[in-house]
Amino acid sequence: MLHTGTDHKRVYYISLCHPLRNAPSYCGSGGNGGNGSTTGVCMKRVLGGDAQDEVTIINGGQVPSTGPRLAQSEWLAYVYDNGEACTVNGNNNETYKTFVNIRCARNEAEETPGPVHMTSAGCHFVFAWMTKAGCPIQKDQSTPPSPTCLAKFPNSDHTLNLHALHASNYYRVRTHDLEYELNICGAITNGTCRDANTTVCAVGAKGTEPVALATITATTSLEWRDSILFLTYKAQNSKVDIQFHCDRQSTQNNIYRVEKNSTYTGFTVRTSAVCTPEALQCVLSDRYGNIYDLRSLWKSPGNWEALPTLSSDEDMVYLINVCGQVNSNATFSCPAGPIGACQTDIRKGTSYNLGFLTTDPVVNEDQSITILYTSGDACQDGKHSRSTRINLICSKTEHGPIFITKTGTCDYIFKWLTPAACPRHVTTGSDCQVKDPLYGNTYDLKPLRNVANDYSVIGGFDQKQYLINLCGPLLNPCGSEGKAGLCQIDESQKFSGGLASSDVTFRDGSLSVKYENGTGNCQGSTTRSSTIVFLCNHDESGQDGPEMLPGDECVFNFIWQTIHACPPFHVVDCSFSTADGQLYDLKSLSSPYTNKEYYLPHANKKFVLNICRSVVHSKSSRCPYTAGACIVDLDGKNESINIGEVHTGPYLDDDILKLKYTHGNKCNETHTYQTLITFLCNKNSSNDYPHYITEESCTYFFEWETPAACPKEASGTSSSIHSGENCRVNNTHTGYVFDLNILKHETGYEVHDDHDLHLNLNVCGEVDKTKCPGEGSGACSHTGTHDKPSSFMSAGKANAKLHYTPGFLFLYYTGGDQCNSTASRSTFISFICGAENVTEGPVLIHDDLDKCTYFVNWYTSAACERRIDCFVDTWTSRLDLSPLIRSTGNYEIINPSKHKEKFYINVCRPLNPIIGFNCQPGSAACLYNSSSVGEPLNLGYPAVGLVYVYEEGVKMMYTHGSKCPTNPNYDISTMISFVCNKSAEKGKPVFKEVSHDCQYQFEWETSHVCEHTEEPELGPICQIRYDDAKANVDLKPLQRPEGYNVSFGGKEYKINVCGPACNQSGVCTSDGASFGLINKSELLWEYNKSLKLTYYNGDICPYSLSGHKTTFIYFECDMNAGYGKPVADELMADIDCKAIFHWKTNITCLESIYGNGDTSVTTEKASTGNGKEEAGGDIVPDKQTSDSDGGTSSTMITVVASVIVVCGLIFVAVLILFKSVRGQRFVSAARRIIGVKGHATLLLDDVS
Asked: Can you tell me whether residue 588 is helix, strand or coil?
């Protein structure tokens, strides 16, 4: 029976391989349909609320006589044909027909509870059914005989111990003519036969002698024959076979005699003890779709323990395990083998097998779970075998197993209250978030909420428009339907596809959102609804919206690919190059939305793997989050094993391309699982898929023939050098032409070092002969001073042959004056595209006395084709690391474990000059070892931009460094992982380790990778730290009660700083529109040292990414501007949602911060003196107060004012002193000492 639709108004009855049985009476007489007894499908549909409006199709098709047929790979077509007449299309000659398409479900996660109704188009009913019953059966293979009671299970690593079936006395087998006493793997005890070695005894009628048919001393063999285990005893004139048949439902050992003649006797034993142990389904589902996960109850080491209830059994302990066999320990000893429970006697030291792991747990109707272990040790003289029945009941608290009773048939009953018996894997979260109950990850779909515009989707068979949004209702109303989450637009009509909901359902690896109770009266009385299924895609933000699936006209289905449906994952660079210019690139094999799967049918397992990234999480691949490869047990309901995580990219090993995943689950006490994939170049391979080879020493080996493994010519290796004439060279891969003729200078350039060495040089031409007397020299050196040089020495002949290699350009002047007996002087000039504010020009880096070569680094924009971006976009904001770029100096880090090693690093840009040793030009990271005589190691070039890895943050990789000293197959690379620390400000890098593939790894805590979060409303931000000044910049002096008025584009903008311009807005227009609130502001330094003030959360603006109007104000230092005023950016003519202003002011200048500038002239009071007020309302100093040497007027006024004040104070003090008697005496004494004659007015003291 199959219900369809949410209202269950259509019911199908379907039977496979036989006609309908026990169907309702409306399906025909006896439930066999209206066409005799071959009806396989019956359907009833209620059209309205009244049962009188029913339509019944008694015969939807007859059971085919030939059974299913193979339609295509792994698809079986089961077709019910020749149903009753169908009049839907007005053609009475057509009959109903039903198609059930059956596909092999490789694991329980892919299985559907039954047929899934796909469509009912006219006279055809179509169903799909994913089931294990559709999978091909693996035939059992025979195993060689074993002479003991131990035998390997077929297709299993487990060993069968038949001694578990040994009875304490014997088993009794009765037939119509004889009675037999029999034991297994041992002799009969207290039996009728006199021989103590007897194992099979025939007991005849009374008065006749019993006959020993087999003894334990006879020739014994044990072997599998087509899944049946044969135990054979051979004597000289007789033979006894005991055949063991697997019966998983058996709770006791049933023995029958099946054959007898004068020399042969055969017995059959039906028991679960010989059933091949299987990984039990520890993840279960019930008919309601609830999932139960019992894996948390598995213990290793140790077991669950339960005590008996009777005092007479106080020495007994029950040991239990779930999802695996009981574990041995020093205290309690259980019988060997795959048993799930045992009973031990502490005093006697004995134990009994209480049942093997033979059957899967079962979910009962009351949602309790029953675990059954059967065919344990014999009891009651072999009449029964011990078994265990555990009833698991959902509880919030773990109580452990409790022994209840032992039945008369040796069934041991336990009750167990545990959270593991509660439904899991299907959970619903609110507020657009939901937590994975298995692995604990919280999925958050709120970033997909479009605050500017509703998503627009065109879909369906009729290509209608659908508006959709998440985590709240649509921004635009859907007619009068209230808070709809989806709206169908059909010309002028609007229909709600369901009310908005923020509930997210997690169902075994998939996320979904449902909108229900939309507009009614769809195709009658159906209410419209919508379902959105979210699929993990590592590379898709999801901001383009969902895709619609064609289907039902009243139920709308959407697929939404997004990174927000992914758990945390790892991604590494999937390419590398070799020293000889070969590039290996496996990016085409790395998929952000799907995995590669390889099945092992005989083991009922599959491998799931991806290349250079973690596996993509989905319902069919519930692997641990960061696994690059895992094993899914198809019998264990997607129980998976992590066989390696993604840490590093591909590499060459003996010229063979390989990729290794390490640090998987624990394999044994000393090792974890890892995966090694070998890639073989095959340009003609059409089967682009990995092949499993073997497993050895905890490593899984795969081989993959693929065109992607074939090398190409690399464009990013240091050996890839191109040359050009006339001081020009082009990048052959992009076509960009570098031209350094603009650097050629008539008189040349002069550089020097700290040791009195001067070097005159020119670019692509000779140095002026007055500075370099030699003929044709492009560079020459001398010692002494610039004005009084010593003798000149040519350092190389000029040429215009410019060379290009990724990372820098260079000129090489050779053939200079003789340096020593073997070499002549040369000059190597490297032209580097440095940081934006680097000082351009040549720098003498190093004088290599051994090579007689001068190394010059020349930083110039002429060497720039493009600089990599130093920002990265997350799904919610842009993280800008350009403030970390250094244009002078570099970040220096000492290796904490090797103090003689020092790292030099820059961010996104090449290193700045390091005088004294020669790091590779253009490199962004370099390692110098003071104890090594070799050149510093190049740790990589800044060729790749920043990467944002979900849940891991921002990463930067520098590639194509020097050859790895420990393994020349690798190029050195650098990986910097930036970690958010709001208190770290810029922070600094810390060296962590070197990976096996020669990658130097650093961690850098900085506030610049912290995403914007909602901060408490603290009012306007007016101060910011100025690191160079070691002080704060305060914008408070710029605040005006009336604000600043700026006219632009026909609008009047009112602006203020540190206070509102109107209401609570920092910027607004004359019509009242807010362009940002003062309590939603941000003050940051830009990389070019300008100060940026941002006001957020202005009025709604649908065209903005944030959904609100925003203002950017850039403050630029200008000591001549006074406080200045804001000026509108011309870009505002083309944008509606942002206001951009530039403000030149002395407030942000270093001089003002230190107090050396004149800020007083910018006050209103001071403006009446040396300043004047302009129309815009800003106060600027009078230009006449500027000094002739270009000094600022504010500095001069400050000095003059100070001198006047000090002189005035001295003058007043002198007057007071002269008027006093003491003062007059002091003056007279001074006059006499220095011989100065004074005026008569100063001699009053003499006549007093």
From this structure: helix
> Are the C-beta atoms of 960 and 952 separated by less than 8 Å?
no
- Relative to beta strand 555-562, strand 529-536 is parallel
Which class for 94: exposed (0-12), middle (13-18), buried (19 or more C-beta within 10 A)? middle
- Pick the range with the lowest mean pLDDT from 71-75, 120-124, 1138-1142: 71-75
For 636-655, the pLDDT digits (tens) are 444 678 999 988 888 888 88
Alpha-carbon separation of residue 676 from 583, 601, 994 (angstroms): 21, 22, 20
Bridge-based pairing state of the strands 999-1006 and 973-980 = parallel
CB 107 within 8 A of CB 81: no
Percentage helix, strand, coil, to 5, in the chain? 10, 40, 50
User: Which DSSP state fits 777?
Assistant: B
Is 816 within 8 Å of 779 (Cβ atoms)?
yes
Residue-wise pLDDT for 503-518, tens only, equals 998 876 778 999 998 9
pTM: 0.36
Mean pLDDT of the chain: 79
> What whole-number distance in Å separates Cα of residue 222 and Cα of residue 146?
5
Strand pairing partners for 285?
291
**Other CB atoms within 10 Å distance of the CB of residue 480:** 8
Q: Which has the higher per-residue pLDDT, 944 or 1168?
A: 944
- State the pLDDT at residue 109: 53
Question: CA dist 797 to 42, 728, 772, 802, 920, Å?
Answer: 97, 18, 11, 14, 23
Tell me the C-alpha distance between 329 and 893, whole Å. Answer: 52
- Please give the Cα distance from 413 to 402 (Å, whole number): 9
- How much is the average pLDDT of 207-219? 85
- Range of lowest pLDDT (139-143, 360-364, 436-440, 725-729): 139-143
What is the three-class DSSP state of 65?
coil
Q: At what angle do helices 1193-1219 and 1221-1234 cross, to 10 degrees?
A: 100
855 token code pair = 């190394």
Given a contact cutoff of 8 angstroms between Cβ atoms, the answer to whether 104 and 136 are in contact is yes
Looking at the predicted structure, is the pLDDT value of residue 876 above 80?
Answer: no
C-alpha to C-alpha distance for 348 and 302, rounded to whole angstroms: 21
Query: Comparing 94-98, 573-577, 856-860, 1183-1187, which segment has the lowest mean pLDDT?
Result: 1183-1187
Q: What is the DSSP letter of 913?
A: P
Lowest mean pLDDT, pick from 451-455, 574-578, 1071-1075? 574-578
Amino acid at 422: C
DSSP of 985-1011, one letter per residue? Answer: TT--EEEEEE-TTSEEEEEEEEGGGPP
653: which residues sit within 8 A by CB, 6+ positions away?
969
In contact, 647 and 995? CB cutoff 8 Å: yes
Cα gap 1240→1248, rounded to integer Å: 13
Q: How far apart are CA 38 and CA 763, in angstroms?
A: 96
Structure tokens that stand for 973 in this block:
């690379």
Strand spans (E) along 354-425: 362-363, 369-373, 378-379, 384-385, 387-394, 400-406, 411-418
Q: Which residue from 761, 937, 765, 909 is spatially nearest to 842, judged by alpha carbons? A: 761
For residues 478 and 497, give the distance between their C-alpha atoms in angstroms, rounded to a whole number: 9
Give the whole-angstrom CA distance, residue 167 versus residue 180.
Answer: 14
> Confidence class of residue 360 from pLDDT cuts 50, 70 and 90?
confident
Q: State which H helix or E strand residue 901 sits in.
A: strand 898-905
Q: How far is CA 281 from the centre of its chain?
A: 29
8 A C-beta contact, residue 1144 and residue 1121: yes
- Between β-strands 239-246 and 264-271, what pairing exists: parallel, antiparallel or unpaired? parallel
For residue 595 the two structure tokens come to 């995995």
Which tens digits make up the pLDDT trace of 1160-1214? 333 333 333 333 333 333 333 333 333 334 444 444 545 445 555 555 555 545 4
